[in-house]
Design a protein that fits this description.
Blueprint: E1 8-17, E2 20-26, E3 29-34, E4 55-63, E5 69-72, H1 79-89, H2 96-121
Length: 122
């Protein structure tokens, strides 16, 4: 089987490590799904998401010169591209800095009041 970047294939998890999972995508062809490519959410424990022998759908991210293959489970999801495009198309909140300044000012005022009341009790 020839492995091309961008292909979405089904494979079987053959080994789990703290840093990722090795997935066999064809006989004698194994690639690594780094822990950051397992799920959209932060993955602290890969064993909570994958088990050895589990079938997974992966996307081929890279085929390196030395033959190593980088894979991704989260990018194989068809909704991944839609989410990336949605995030890129959202306009930055131009009022964020002013709201942040207002919040920080209010926070400073509240902390000052708490300190004054604490000193008054002593």
């Amino acid at each position: 089987m020839s492995v091309s970047i961008g292909n979405i294939v089904t494979g079987r998890v053959v080994r789990l490590h703290d840093y990722g999972a090795f997935v066999e995508i064809a006989p004698d062809t194994t690639g690594l799904v780094h822990i950051s490519e397992v799920h959209r959410d932060f993955v602290e424990n890969i064993h909570a998401y994958l088990t050895e022998g589990q079938d997974v759908t992966v996307k081929v991210l890279a085929v390196k010169d030395d033959g190593r293959i980088d894979l991704s489970i989260k990018r194989a999801d068809p909704t991944w591209e839609e989410e990336v495009q949605r995030r890129q198309s959202t306009k930055p909140d131009k009022e964020f800095n002013s709201r942040l300044r207002k919040f920080m000012h209010q926070s400073d005022m509240i902390q000052g009041e708490v300190r004054r009341r604490k000193r008054a009790r002593q």
